[in-house]
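Pair request: fold both.
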Amino acid sequence: MAGSEAMRSLRWLTRSAASAFNKPETVMRQAAARSSRHLATSTEPSTETVSPAADADISTLPTATTAWSPPSPVLVTLYAFPSMKPLRFEKYPAEHLQVPLRRDLLHRAVIYEGDNTRQGTASTKWRDDVHGSGRKLAPQKGTGNARVGDRKSPIRRGGGVAFGPHPRDFSTDLPRKIYDKAWRTALSYRYNCGHIMVVDRIQMPRDASPWFWKTFFEANPWGKGKGRCTLITDEMDKELFRAVNEVEEHARILDRPDVDVKDLLKTGKLIIEKKALDKILREHSKDLVKAAPRANYPRRLYFSE
Protein backbone atom coordinates (compact mmCIF):
# COMPACT_ATOMS: atom_id res chain seq x y z
CA MET A 1 0.00 0.00 0.00
CA ALA A 2 2.79 2.45 1.00
CA GLY A 3 5.01 1.48 -1.94
CA SER A 4 2.25 2.00 -4.47
CA GLU A 5 1.50 5.44 -3.06
CA ALA A 6 5.20 6.36 -3.28
CA MET A 7 5.34 5.28 -6.94
CA ARG A 8 2.23 7.32 -7.63
CA SER A 9 3.94 10.37 -6.12
CA LEU A 10 7.01 9.86 -8.31
CA ARG A 11 4.86 9.66 -11.45
CA TRP A 12 3.22 12.92 -10.41
CA LEU A 13 6.69 14.48 -10.10
CA THR A 14 7.76 13.37 -13.57
CA ARG A 15 4.57 14.61 -15.20
CA SER A 16 4.88 18.05 -13.61
CA ALA A 17 8.51 18.62 -14.57
CA ALA A 18 7.85 22.11 -15.79
CA SER A 19 6.39 23.20 -12.47
CA ALA A 20 9.24 21.45 -10.62
CA PHE A 21 11.84 23.59 -12.34
CA ASN A 22 9.89 26.72 -11.53
CA LYS A 23 9.15 25.90 -7.82
CA PRO A 24 11.30 22.93 -6.70
CA GLU A 25 10.95 23.48 -2.97
CA THR A 26 7.17 23.55 -3.03
CA VAL A 27 6.93 20.39 -5.12
CA MET A 28 9.29 18.35 -2.91
CA ARG A 29 7.49 19.52 0.23
CA GLN A 30 4.10 18.38 -1.10
CA ALA A 31 5.47 14.97 -2.24
CA ALA A 32 7.10 14.31 1.15
CA ALA A 33 3.94 15.22 3.05
CA ARG A 34 1.80 13.05 0.80
CA SER A 35 3.98 9.94 1.07
CA SER A 36 4.46 10.28 4.85
CA ARG A 37 0.72 10.60 5.39
CA HIS A 38 0.04 7.35 3.51
CA LEU A 39 2.78 5.50 5.32
CA ALA A 40 1.40 6.59 8.67
CA THR A 41 -2.12 5.43 7.82
CA SER A 42 -0.91 2.02 6.63
CA THR A 43 1.24 1.30 9.72
CA GLU A 44 -1.04 2.82 12.35
CA PRO A 45 -2.43 0.05 14.65
CA SER A 46 -6.15 -0.25 15.24
CA THR A 47 -7.42 1.29 18.45
CA GLU A 48 -10.89 -0.28 18.45
CA THR A 49 -11.66 -2.54 21.39
CA VAL A 50 -14.51 -4.94 21.92
CA SER A 51 -16.32 -4.51 25.16
CA PRO A 52 -16.94 -7.53 27.42
CA ALA A 53 -20.68 -6.92 27.11
CA ALA A 54 -20.49 -7.38 23.32
CA ASP A 55 -18.64 -10.68 23.82
CA ALA A 56 -21.33 -11.82 26.16
CA ASP A 57 -24.06 -10.92 23.66
CA ILE A 58 -22.31 -12.82 20.85
CA SER A 59 -21.88 -15.93 22.99
CA THR A 60 -25.54 -15.95 23.97
CA LEU A 61 -26.88 -15.74 20.39
CA PRO A 62 -29.00 -18.78 19.41
CA THR A 63 -27.48 -21.20 16.92
CA ALA A 64 -29.01 -21.65 13.47
CA THR A 65 -29.06 -25.45 13.61
CA THR A 66 -32.32 -27.02 14.73
CA ALA A 67 -33.22 -30.62 15.33
CA TRP A 68 -34.86 -32.43 12.43
CA SER A 69 -38.39 -33.62 12.96
CA PRO A 70 -40.39 -35.85 10.61
CA PRO A 71 -43.28 -34.21 8.73
CA SER A 72 -46.61 -34.40 10.45
CA PRO A 73 -49.17 -36.84 9.01
CA VAL A 74 -51.98 -35.69 6.77
CA LEU A 75 -55.50 -35.70 8.22
CA VAL A 76 -58.15 -36.91 5.78
CA THR A 77 -61.86 -36.70 6.59
CA LEU A 78 -63.77 -39.94 6.12
CA TYR A 79 -67.38 -39.47 4.96
CA ALA A 80 -70.41 -41.72 5.06
CA PHE A 81 -71.99 -42.43 1.70
CA PRO A 82 -74.49 -41.28 0.44
CA SER A 83 -75.32 -38.89 3.29
CA MET A 84 -71.75 -37.45 3.09
CA LYS A 85 -71.63 -36.89 6.84
CA PRO A 86 -68.14 -36.74 8.39
CA LEU A 87 -67.30 -39.84 10.40
CA ARG A 88 -63.71 -39.45 11.59
CA PHE A 89 -60.21 -38.41 10.60
CA GLU A 90 -57.75 -40.79 9.00
CA LYS A 91 -53.99 -40.23 9.11
CA TYR A 92 -51.81 -40.72 6.05
CA PRO A 93 -48.05 -40.15 5.73
CA ALA A 94 -46.89 -36.92 4.14
CA GLU A 95 -45.04 -38.95 1.48
CA HIS A 96 -48.44 -40.12 0.21
CA LEU A 97 -50.66 -37.03 0.13
CA GLN A 98 -48.24 -34.09 0.46
CA VAL A 99 -45.98 -34.69 -2.53
CA PRO A 100 -45.00 -31.46 -4.39
CA LEU A 101 -46.56 -31.00 -7.79
CA ARG A 102 -44.42 -32.34 -10.65
CA ARG A 103 -46.10 -31.72 -13.98
CA ASP A 104 -43.31 -33.48 -15.83
CA LEU A 105 -43.91 -36.73 -13.94
CA LEU A 106 -47.66 -36.54 -14.55
CA HIS A 107 -47.06 -35.95 -18.26
CA ARG A 108 -44.69 -38.89 -18.54
CA ALA A 109 -47.10 -41.17 -16.69
CA VAL A 110 -50.07 -40.22 -18.89
CA ILE A 111 -48.01 -40.74 -22.07
CA TYR A 112 -46.76 -44.08 -20.74
CA GLU A 113 -50.30 -45.28 -20.03
CA GLY A 114 -51.56 -44.07 -23.40
CA ASP A 115 -48.79 -45.84 -25.28
CA ASN A 116 -49.41 -49.11 -23.46
CA THR A 117 -53.13 -49.05 -24.21
CA ARG A 118 -52.67 -48.63 -27.95
CA GLN A 119 -53.56 -51.84 -29.77
CA GLY A 120 -51.35 -51.31 -32.78
CA THR A 121 -53.45 -53.67 -34.94
CA ALA A 122 -53.90 -51.40 -37.97
CA SER A 123 -52.82 -53.35 -41.02
CA THR A 124 -52.83 -52.83 -44.79
CA LYS A 125 -51.66 -54.94 -47.72
CA TRP A 126 -48.68 -54.13 -49.85
CA ARG A 127 -48.68 -55.13 -53.51
CA ASP A 128 -47.08 -58.47 -52.65
CA ASP A 129 -49.90 -59.27 -50.22
CA VAL A 130 -52.72 -58.59 -52.67
CA HIS A 131 -54.13 -61.65 -54.40
CA GLY A 132 -53.78 -61.51 -58.19
CA SER A 133 -51.51 -62.07 -61.12
CA GLY A 134 -48.22 -60.32 -61.61
CA ARG A 135 -48.63 -60.13 -65.39
CA LYS A 136 -47.89 -56.80 -67.03
CA LEU A 137 -51.14 -55.23 -68.23
CA ALA A 138 -49.78 -53.69 -71.44
CA PRO A 139 -46.55 -53.80 -73.43
CA GLN A 140 -43.87 -51.38 -72.46
CA LYS A 141 -43.84 -49.68 -75.87
CA GLY A 142 -46.03 -49.30 -78.86
CA THR A 143 -49.39 -48.48 -77.31
CA GLY A 144 -48.89 -44.74 -77.00
CA ASN A 145 -50.02 -44.83 -73.36
CA ALA A 146 -48.06 -44.53 -70.18
CA ARG A 147 -46.07 -47.44 -68.87
CA VAL A 148 -48.07 -49.74 -66.59
CA GLY A 149 -47.26 -52.68 -64.41
CA ASP A 150 -49.51 -55.35 -62.92
CA ARG A 151 -52.96 -54.81 -61.45
CA LYS A 152 -51.56 -54.92 -57.88
CA SER A 153 -49.79 -51.59 -58.31
CA PRO A 154 -50.55 -48.99 -55.57
CA ILE A 155 -51.76 -46.49 -58.18
CA ARG A 156 -54.61 -48.77 -59.27
CA ARG A 157 -57.91 -49.39 -57.53
CA GLY A 158 -57.80 -52.68 -55.64
CA GLY A 159 -54.03 -52.69 -55.56
CA GLY A 160 -51.69 -52.53 -52.61
CA VAL A 161 -51.33 -49.60 -50.25
CA ALA A 162 -48.05 -47.72 -50.36
CA PHE A 163 -46.47 -47.01 -46.98
CA GLY A 164 -49.57 -48.19 -45.13
CA PRO A 165 -49.67 -49.10 -41.43
CA HIS A 166 -48.69 -52.55 -40.21
CA PRO A 167 -49.12 -54.17 -36.79
CA ARG A 168 -46.60 -52.80 -34.33
CA ASP A 169 -46.01 -52.36 -30.62
CA PHE A 170 -46.47 -48.79 -29.34
CA SER A 171 -45.65 -49.54 -25.70
CA THR A 172 -42.90 -47.54 -24.01
CA ASP A 173 -40.92 -47.98 -20.81
CA LEU A 174 -41.01 -45.89 -17.66
CA PRO A 175 -39.04 -46.50 -14.44
CA ARG A 176 -41.19 -47.93 -11.70
CA LYS A 177 -40.14 -45.28 -9.18
CA ILE A 178 -41.20 -42.46 -11.49
CA TYR A 179 -44.56 -44.10 -12.17
CA ASP A 180 -45.21 -44.66 -8.46
CA LYS A 181 -44.31 -41.07 -7.64
CA ALA A 182 -46.65 -39.86 -10.39
CA TRP A 183 -49.52 -41.72 -8.67
CA ARG A 184 -48.77 -40.08 -5.34
CA THR A 185 -48.31 -36.70 -7.02
CA ALA A 186 -51.74 -36.94 -8.67
CA LEU A 187 -53.44 -37.90 -5.40
CA SER A 188 -51.60 -35.14 -3.52
CA TYR A 189 -52.62 -32.54 -6.09
CA ARG A 190 -56.29 -33.51 -5.90
CA TYR A 191 -56.16 -33.55 -2.09
CA ASN A 192 -54.50 -30.12 -1.85
CA CYS A 193 -57.09 -28.67 -4.24
CA GLY A 194 -59.94 -30.16 -2.19
CA HIS A 195 -61.18 -32.30 -5.08
CA ILE A 196 -60.94 -35.71 -3.41
CA MET A 197 -63.40 -37.20 -0.93
CA VAL A 198 -62.75 -40.46 0.90
CA VAL A 199 -65.84 -42.49 1.82
CA ASP A 200 -66.32 -45.69 3.72
CA ARG A 201 -68.14 -47.52 0.93
CA ILE A 202 -69.96 -46.56 -2.27
CA GLN A 203 -73.33 -48.28 -2.38
CA MET A 204 -76.93 -47.57 -3.23
CA PRO A 205 -79.39 -47.24 -0.36
CA ARG A 206 -82.17 -49.76 0.02
CA ASP A 207 -85.32 -49.32 -2.07
CA ALA A 208 -83.62 -46.60 -4.11
CA SER A 209 -85.21 -45.61 -7.40
CA PRO A 210 -83.22 -45.62 -10.66
CA TRP A 211 -83.18 -41.80 -10.51
CA PHE A 212 -81.30 -41.79 -7.23
CA TRP A 213 -77.95 -40.98 -8.80
CA LYS A 214 -79.36 -38.20 -10.94
CA THR A 215 -80.88 -36.40 -7.98
CA PHE A 216 -77.73 -37.11 -5.94
CA PHE A 217 -75.41 -35.34 -8.38
CA GLU A 218 -77.87 -32.52 -9.00
CA ALA A 219 -78.22 -31.84 -5.27
CA ASN A 220 -74.43 -31.79 -4.80
CA PRO A 221 -72.20 -29.58 -7.01
CA TRP A 222 -70.50 -32.58 -8.61
CA GLY A 223 -72.61 -33.14 -11.72
CA LYS A 224 -72.46 -32.10 -15.34
CA GLY A 225 -72.16 -28.39 -14.75
CA LYS A 226 -69.25 -28.79 -12.30
CA GLY A 227 -66.89 -31.02 -14.30
CA ARG A 228 -68.53 -34.38 -13.54
CA CYS A 229 -67.41 -36.85 -10.89
CA THR A 230 -65.38 -40.06 -10.79
CA LEU A 231 -66.36 -42.86 -8.40
CA ILE A 232 -63.67 -45.42 -7.54
CA THR A 233 -64.63 -48.65 -5.78
CA ASP A 234 -62.45 -51.43 -4.48
CA GLU A 235 -64.57 -54.20 -6.05
CA MET A 236 -66.90 -54.24 -9.01
CA ASP A 237 -70.64 -54.31 -8.32
CA LYS A 238 -72.61 -54.91 -11.52
CA GLU A 239 -75.84 -53.33 -10.30
CA LEU A 240 -74.01 -50.27 -8.99
CA PHE A 241 -72.04 -49.86 -12.22
CA ARG A 242 -75.15 -50.24 -14.35
CA ALA A 243 -77.02 -47.61 -12.33
CA VAL A 244 -74.18 -45.07 -12.52
CA ASN A 245 -73.61 -45.64 -16.24
CA GLU A 246 -77.20 -44.55 -16.88
CA VAL A 247 -76.26 -41.06 -15.71
CA GLU A 248 -72.89 -40.91 -17.44
CA GLU A 249 -73.36 -37.21 -18.19
CA HIS A 250 -72.91 -36.60 -14.45
CA ALA A 251 -70.40 -39.24 -13.34
CA ARG A 252 -68.28 -42.21 -14.27
CA ILE A 253 -67.48 -45.20 -12.11
CA LEU A 254 -64.36 -47.39 -12.11
CA ASP A 255 -63.05 -50.22 -10.01
CA ARG A 256 -59.55 -50.04 -8.58
CA PRO A 257 -57.71 -52.27 -11.12
CA ASP A 258 -58.99 -50.13 -14.01
CA VAL A 259 -57.84 -46.79 -12.59
CA ASP A 260 -54.89 -44.94 -14.17
CA VAL A 261 -53.16 -41.67 -13.41
CA LYS A 262 -55.15 -39.86 -16.10
CA ASP A 263 -58.40 -41.03 -14.45
CA LEU A 264 -57.40 -39.23 -11.25
CA LEU A 265 -57.02 -35.96 -13.15
CA LYS A 266 -59.87 -36.23 -15.64
CA THR A 267 -62.98 -35.01 -13.80
CA GLY A 268 -63.72 -32.21 -11.37
CA LYS A 269 -64.45 -34.38 -8.31
CA LEU A 270 -63.02 -37.67 -7.11
CA ILE A 271 -64.92 -39.90 -4.68
CA ILE A 272 -62.93 -42.96 -3.65
CA GLU A 273 -63.42 -45.70 -1.11
CA LYS A 274 -60.94 -45.82 1.75
CA LYS A 275 -60.09 -49.44 1.05
CA ALA A 276 -59.33 -48.64 -2.58
CA LEU A 277 -57.19 -45.63 -1.61
CA ASP A 278 -55.18 -47.68 0.86
CA LYS A 279 -54.49 -50.37 -1.73
CA ILE A 280 -53.45 -47.81 -4.34
CA LEU A 281 -51.03 -46.12 -1.97
CA ARG A 282 -49.62 -49.44 -0.79
CA GLU A 283 -49.11 -50.62 -4.35
CA HIS A 284 -47.40 -47.43 -5.50
CA SER A 285 -45.22 -46.76 -2.45
CA LYS A 286 -42.74 -49.59 -2.75
CA ASP A 287 -39.92 -47.16 -3.53
CA LEU A 288 -40.38 -45.53 -0.10
CA VAL A 289 -39.70 -48.73 1.83
CA LYS A 290 -35.97 -49.13 2.32
CA ALA A 291 -34.79 -52.41 3.79
CA ALA A 292 -32.00 -52.28 6.35
CA PRO A 293 -28.61 -53.44 5.02
CA ARG A 294 -27.69 -56.94 6.04
CA ALA A 295 -24.17 -58.34 6.16
CA ASN A 296 -23.56 -61.81 4.75
CA TYR A 297 -20.55 -63.74 5.96
CA PRO A 298 -19.05 -66.93 4.52
CA ARG A 299 -20.06 -69.78 6.75
CA ARG A 300 -16.73 -71.65 6.69
CA LEU A 301 -14.74 -68.51 7.45
CA TYR A 302 -16.44 -67.39 10.66
CA PHE A 303 -18.47 -70.36 11.84
CA SER A 304 -17.35 -73.87 12.59
CA GLU A 305 -19.41 -76.66 11.12
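--- second member of the pair ---
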Amino acid sequence: MASDLLAIGARGLHGDQRYQLIVIFDDSSDTVILIPPITKEVQMIVITGATGAFGSAVVRELLHKIPANELSVSVRDPAKVRGLPEHGVRVRRGDFGDPASLTAAFEGADRVLVTSVDSLGERAVAQHSSAARAAADVGAGRVFYTAHQNTAIDSPFAAAPDHGATEERIAEIGVPWTSLRNGFYAHIVGQLIHGATETGELALPEDGPVSWTSRDDLAAGAAVLLAAGIAGNDGPVFDGPTPPLTVPEAVTFDDIAYLISDITGKLIRRTIIGDDDWLHRMTDSGAPEPAARLMLGMFQAARRGDFATTDPALGELIGRQPQTIRATLASLLGTSR
Protein backbone atom coordinates (compact mmCIF):
# COMPACT_ATOMS: atom_id res chain seq x y z
CA MET A 1 0.00 0.00 0.00
CA ALA A 2 1.40 3.38 -0.98
CA SER A 3 2.55 5.68 1.76
CA ASP A 4 0.56 8.81 2.53
CA LEU A 5 2.97 11.67 2.86
CA LEU A 6 2.13 15.07 4.25
CA ALA A 7 4.68 17.87 3.94
CA ILE A 8 4.50 21.06 5.95
CA GLY A 9 6.89 23.88 5.15
CA ALA A 10 7.72 27.18 6.73
CA ARG A 11 9.82 30.10 5.61
CA GLY A 12 10.84 33.18 7.46
CA LEU A 13 13.42 35.81 8.17
CA HIS A 14 15.70 35.96 11.18
CA GLY A 15 17.93 39.03 11.35
CA ASP A 16 19.75 39.25 8.02
CA GLN A 17 19.17 35.59 7.05
CA ARG A 18 16.27 33.76 5.47
CA TYR A 19 15.47 30.23 6.57
CA GLN A 20 13.38 27.30 5.35
CA LEU A 21 12.05 24.40 7.43
CA ILE A 22 10.28 21.35 6.00
CA VAL A 23 8.63 18.56 8.05
CA ILE A 24 7.35 15.39 6.31
CA PHE A 25 4.88 13.00 8.00
CA ASP A 26 4.79 9.36 6.74
CA ASP A 27 1.45 7.83 7.83
CA SER A 28 2.39 4.30 6.77
CA SER A 29 5.23 4.03 9.24
CA ASP A 30 4.23 6.66 11.78
CA THR A 31 7.54 8.42 11.24
CA VAL A 32 8.41 12.07 11.00
CA ILE A 33 11.15 13.20 8.68
CA LEU A 34 12.67 16.56 9.58
CA ILE A 35 14.67 18.30 6.88
CA PRO A 36 17.14 20.63 8.63
CA PRO A 37 16.83 24.38 8.15
CA ILE A 38 18.57 25.75 5.11
CA THR A 39 19.93 29.24 5.55
CA LYS A 40 20.52 31.61 2.66
CA GLU A 41 22.98 34.42 3.00
CA VAL A 42 21.82 37.89 2.02
CA GLN A 43 21.78 38.06 -1.76
CA MET A 44 20.04 41.24 -2.85
CA ILE A 45 21.13 44.73 -1.90
CA VAL A 46 18.99 47.61 -3.16
CA ILE A 47 20.44 51.10 -3.46
CA THR A 48 18.04 54.02 -3.78
CA GLY A 49 19.07 57.28 -5.38
CA ALA A 50 21.60 55.42 -7.48
CA THR A 51 21.85 58.15 -10.12
CA GLY A 52 22.90 60.69 -7.48
CA ALA A 53 26.50 61.37 -6.52
CA PHE A 54 26.48 59.39 -3.27
CA GLY A 55 24.28 56.51 -4.44
CA SER A 56 26.26 55.98 -7.64
CA ALA A 57 29.52 56.00 -5.65
CA VAL A 58 28.12 53.31 -3.34
CA VAL A 59 27.12 51.22 -6.36
CA ARG A 60 30.65 51.46 -7.79
CA GLU A 61 32.11 50.31 -4.49
CA LEU A 62 29.68 47.41 -4.17
CA LEU A 63 30.49 46.13 -7.65
CA HIS A 64 34.00 45.45 -6.34
CA LYS A 65 32.57 43.41 -3.48
CA ILE A 66 29.53 41.41 -4.62
CA PRO A 67 28.26 39.82 -7.84
CA ALA A 68 26.33 42.25 -10.03
CA ASN A 69 23.23 40.05 -9.96
CA GLU A 70 23.02 40.56 -6.21
CA LEU A 71 22.78 44.33 -6.64
CA SER A 72 19.67 46.30 -7.55
CA VAL A 73 19.14 50.02 -7.94
CA SER A 74 15.94 51.96 -7.36
CA VAL A 75 15.75 55.23 -9.29
CA ARG A 76 13.04 57.69 -10.28
CA ASP A 77 14.00 57.51 -13.96
CA PRO A 78 15.54 54.18 -15.09
CA ALA A 79 16.37 55.73 -18.48
CA LYS A 80 19.09 57.78 -16.77
CA VAL A 81 20.95 54.67 -15.57
CA ARG A 82 23.96 53.94 -17.75
CA GLY A 83 26.21 50.89 -17.75
CA LEU A 84 24.58 48.90 -14.97
CA PRO A 85 22.02 46.66 -16.72
CA GLU A 86 24.69 45.48 -19.15
CA HIS A 87 26.70 44.18 -16.21
CA GLY A 88 23.78 42.35 -14.64
CA VAL A 89 22.61 44.96 -12.11
CA ARG A 90 18.84 45.05 -11.70
CA VAL A 91 17.32 48.48 -12.42
CA ARG A 92 13.81 49.34 -11.29
CA ARG A 93 11.75 52.48 -10.96
CA GLY A 94 11.25 53.58 -7.38
CA ASP A 95 10.04 57.01 -6.33
CA PHE A 96 9.85 58.03 -2.67
CA GLY A 97 6.89 60.21 -3.63
CA ASP A 98 5.08 57.14 -5.01
CA PRO A 99 5.15 54.53 -2.23
CA ALA A 100 3.45 51.90 -4.42
CA SER A 101 6.42 51.96 -6.81
CA LEU A 102 8.76 50.95 -4.00
CA THR A 103 7.12 47.56 -3.52
CA ALA A 104 8.28 46.47 -6.97
CA ALA A 105 11.59 48.33 -6.70
CA PHE A 106 12.46 46.56 -3.43
CA GLU A 107 11.19 43.10 -4.40
CA GLY A 108 13.45 40.36 -3.04
CA ALA A 109 15.60 42.83 -1.11
CA ASP A 110 17.56 41.65 1.90
CA ARG A 111 19.15 45.03 2.55
CA VAL A 112 18.01 48.44 1.35
CA LEU A 113 19.93 51.71 1.45
CA VAL A 114 17.51 54.63 1.81
CA THR A 115 19.44 57.60 0.49
CA SER A 116 18.19 60.84 2.02
CA VAL A 117 16.42 63.26 -0.32
CA ASP A 118 17.45 66.84 -1.03
CA SER A 119 14.36 68.42 0.51
CA LEU A 120 13.68 69.50 4.08
CA GLY A 121 11.01 69.29 6.75
CA GLU A 122 8.14 66.89 7.22
CA ARG A 123 8.02 66.01 3.53
CA ALA A 124 11.58 64.67 3.66
CA VAL A 125 11.02 62.80 6.92
CA ALA A 126 7.82 61.23 5.57
CA GLN A 127 9.52 60.10 2.37
CA HIS A 128 12.46 58.56 4.23
CA SER A 129 10.27 56.69 6.68
CA SER A 130 7.88 55.58 3.92
CA ALA A 131 10.79 54.08 1.98
CA ALA A 132 12.06 52.32 5.11
CA ARG A 133 8.61 50.89 5.78
CA ALA A 134 8.34 49.68 2.17
CA ALA A 135 11.65 47.86 2.62
CA ALA A 136 10.37 46.22 5.79
CA ASP A 137 7.10 45.25 4.09
CA VAL A 138 8.89 43.28 1.34
CA GLY A 139 10.87 41.39 3.97
CA ALA A 140 14.21 43.20 3.96
CA GLY A 141 16.36 42.07 6.85
CA ARG A 142 17.99 45.47 7.41
CA VAL A 143 17.40 49.06 6.35
CA PHE A 144 20.30 51.48 6.00
CA TYR A 145 19.74 55.24 6.00
CA THR A 146 22.12 58.05 5.04
CA ALA A 147 21.95 60.46 7.96
CA HIS A 148 24.41 63.05 9.22
CA GLN A 149 26.81 63.21 12.12
CA ASN A 150 24.59 66.00 13.49
CA THR A 151 21.03 64.87 14.22
CA ALA A 152 20.28 67.32 17.03
CA ILE A 153 16.61 68.29 17.06
CA ASP A 154 17.48 71.85 18.11
CA SER A 155 20.30 72.37 15.61
CA PRO A 156 20.28 75.58 13.52
CA PHE A 157 21.28 73.41 10.56
CA ALA A 158 17.87 72.54 9.13
CA ALA A 159 18.78 69.07 7.86
CA ALA A 160 19.88 67.87 11.30
CA PRO A 161 16.45 67.66 12.98
CA ASP A 162 15.10 65.97 9.84
CA HIS A 163 17.71 63.23 10.18
CA GLY A 164 16.95 62.86 13.87
CA ALA A 165 13.22 62.59 13.23
CA THR A 166 13.79 60.06 10.45
CA GLU A 167 15.87 57.86 12.74
CA GLU A 168 13.09 57.90 15.33
CA ARG A 169 10.48 56.83 12.77
CA ILE A 170 12.64 54.08 11.31
CA ALA A 171 13.24 52.72 14.80
CA GLU A 172 9.46 52.51 15.30
CA ILE A 173 9.03 50.26 12.25
CA GLY A 174 10.66 47.32 14.00
CA VAL A 175 13.01 46.18 11.23
CA PRO A 176 16.75 46.03 12.01
CA TRP A 177 18.27 49.32 10.88
CA THR A 178 21.55 51.18 10.58
CA SER A 179 21.85 54.94 10.29
CA LEU A 180 25.02 56.18 8.61
CA ARG A 181 26.11 59.22 10.65
CA ASN A 182 28.08 60.75 7.77
CA GLY A 183 30.43 63.67 8.25
CA PHE A 184 29.86 66.91 6.34
CA TYR A 185 30.68 66.45 2.63
CA ALA A 186 34.06 68.05 2.01
CA HIS A 187 33.35 69.11 -1.58
CA ILE A 188 30.99 71.79 -0.22
CA VAL A 189 34.08 73.70 0.92
CA GLY A 190 34.72 74.43 -2.76
CA GLN A 191 31.55 76.54 -2.92
CA LEU A 192 32.51 78.46 0.21
CA ILE A 193 36.08 79.34 -0.81
CA HIS A 194 35.10 80.44 -4.31
CA GLY A 195 36.93 83.60 -5.28
CA ALA A 196 39.26 83.60 -2.26
CA THR A 197 42.44 83.03 -4.27
CA GLU A 198 41.53 85.92 -6.59
CA THR A 199 40.67 88.43 -3.86
CA GLY A 200 43.06 87.21 -1.17
CA GLU A 201 40.18 87.22 1.30
CA LEU A 202 37.98 84.46 2.70
CA ALA A 203 34.97 86.40 3.94
CA LEU A 204 32.46 84.19 5.73
CA PRO A 205 30.30 84.22 8.86
CA GLU A 206 31.71 83.16 12.20
CA ASP A 207 32.13 79.39 12.28
CA GLY A 208 33.43 76.51 14.37
CA PRO A 209 35.26 73.21 13.76
CA VAL A 210 33.87 70.93 11.05
CA SER A 211 35.13 67.43 10.22
CA TRP A 212 34.91 67.82 6.44
CA THR A 213 34.80 64.31 4.96
CA SER A 214 35.16 62.99 1.42
CA ARG A 215 31.93 61.74 -0.11
CA ASP A 216 33.82 58.95 -1.87
CA ASP A 217 35.28 57.77 1.44
CA LEU A 218 31.80 57.78 2.98
CA ALA A 219 30.47 55.77 0.04
CA ALA A 220 33.26 53.25 0.52
CA GLY A 221 32.36 52.95 4.20
CA ALA A 222 28.70 52.47 3.38
CA ALA A 223 29.58 49.69 0.93
CA VAL A 224 31.56 47.85 3.61
CA LEU A 225 28.58 47.86 5.95
CA LEU A 226 26.09 46.92 3.24
CA ALA A 227 28.18 43.99 2.00
CA ALA A 228 29.22 42.63 5.40
CA GLY A 229 28.62 38.88 5.44
CA ILE A 230 28.05 38.62 1.68
CA ALA A 231 30.43 36.93 -0.77
CA GLY A 232 33.12 36.61 1.86
CA ASN A 233 33.09 40.29 2.84
CA ASP A 234 33.86 41.14 6.44
CA GLY A 235 32.49 44.10 8.29
CA PRO A 236 30.77 45.17 11.48
CA VAL A 237 27.04 45.41 12.08
CA PHE A 238 25.73 48.55 13.74
CA ASP A 239 22.24 48.43 15.17
CA GLY A 240 20.91 51.96 15.06
CA PRO A 241 23.28 54.90 14.49
CA THR A 242 26.89 54.29 13.53
CA PRO A 243 29.68 56.21 15.25
CA PRO A 244 30.39 59.51 13.48
CA LEU A 245 31.88 58.64 10.09
CA THR A 246 34.44 61.41 9.71
CA VAL A 247 38.02 62.37 9.08
CA PRO A 248 40.27 62.40 12.16
CA GLU A 249 40.44 66.21 12.38
CA ALA A 250 37.88 69.03 12.51
CA VAL A 251 39.00 72.42 11.19
CA THR A 252 37.75 76.01 11.10
CA PHE A 253 37.85 78.41 8.18
CA ASP A 254 40.83 80.06 9.85
CA ASP A 255 42.59 76.72 9.32
CA ILE A 256 41.29 76.49 5.77
CA ALA A 257 42.56 80.00 4.93
CA TYR A 258 45.99 78.98 6.24
CA LEU A 259 45.95 75.77 4.18
CA ILE A 260 44.94 77.60 1.01
CA SER A 261 47.78 80.05 1.59
CA ASP A 262 50.24 77.21 2.06
CA ILE A 263 49.00 75.28 -0.97
CA THR A 264 48.89 78.22 -3.38
CA GLY A 265 51.73 80.33 -1.99
CA LYS A 266 49.35 83.30 -1.87
CA LEU A 267 48.33 84.86 1.43
CA ILE A 268 44.61 84.40 2.11
CA ARG A 269 43.15 86.53 4.88
CA ARG A 270 40.18 85.16 6.84
CA THR A 271 37.62 87.83 7.68
CA ILE A 272 34.35 87.42 9.55
CA ILE A 273 31.21 89.10 8.23
CA GLY A 274 27.79 89.28 9.84
CA ASP A 275 25.17 86.64 9.12
CA ASP A 276 22.75 89.04 7.44
CA ASP A 277 25.50 90.63 5.37
CA TRP A 278 26.66 87.23 4.13
CA LEU A 279 23.09 86.16 3.37
CA HIS A 280 22.54 89.30 1.30
CA ARG A 281 25.80 88.75 -0.56
CA MET A 282 24.78 85.21 -1.41
CA THR A 283 21.30 86.09 -2.67
CA ASP A 284 22.61 89.13 -4.56
CA SER A 285 25.06 86.83 -6.36
CA GLY A 286 22.19 84.60 -7.49
CA ALA A 287 21.98 81.92 -4.80
CA PRO A 288 18.40 80.85 -3.97
CA GLU A 289 17.48 82.20 -0.54
CA PRO A 290 16.48 78.78 0.91
CA ALA A 291 19.87 77.34 -0.07
CA ALA A 292 21.69 80.36 1.37
CA ARG A 293 19.74 80.10 4.65
CA LEU A 294 20.51 76.38 4.87
CA MET A 295 24.23 77.11 4.54
CA LEU A 296 24.00 79.95 7.06
CA GLY A 297 22.48 77.43 9.45
CA MET A 298 25.60 75.32 8.94
CA PHE A 299 27.79 78.18 10.16
CA GLN A 300 25.51 78.79 13.14
CA ALA A 301 25.52 75.10 14.06
CA ALA A 302 29.30 74.91 13.67
CA ARG A 303 29.68 77.72 16.21
CA ARG A 304 28.10 75.55 18.86
CA GLY A 305 30.18 72.50 17.95
CA ASP A 306 27.59 70.45 16.06
CA PHE A 307 30.18 69.17 13.54
CA ALA A 308 33.27 69.09 15.72
CA THR A 309 33.09 65.41 16.68
CA THR A 310 35.58 63.06 15.02
CA ASP A 311 35.94 59.30 15.20
CA PRO A 312 38.28 56.63 13.77
CA ALA A 313 35.37 54.43 12.61
CA LEU A 314 35.44 55.50 8.95
CA GLY A 315 39.16 54.84 8.57
CA GLU A 316 38.72 51.45 10.23
CA LEU A 317 35.91 50.58 7.82
CA ILE A 318 37.76 51.48 4.63
CA GLY A 319 41.15 50.25 5.82
CA ARG A 320 43.02 53.52 5.26
CA GLN A 321 43.10 57.09 6.43
CA PRO A 322 40.24 59.13 4.95
CA GLN A 323 41.17 61.95 2.62
CA THR A 324 42.36 65.00 4.54
CA ILE A 325 40.95 68.48 4.10
CA ARG A 326 44.35 69.54 2.76
CA ALA A 327 44.13 66.92 0.00
CA THR A 328 40.56 68.02 -0.74
CA LEU A 329 41.62 71.66 -1.02
CA ALA A 330 44.55 70.76 -3.27
CA SER A 331 42.16 68.94 -5.56
CA LEU A 332 39.63 71.78 -5.53
CA LEU A 333 42.35 74.30 -6.28
CA GLY A 334 43.81 72.22 -9.08
CA THR A 335 47.21 71.61 -7.55
CA SER A 336 49.05 68.58 -6.23
CA ARG A 337 50.75 70.47 -3.39
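Observation on the second member. The first helix runs from residue 53 to 62.
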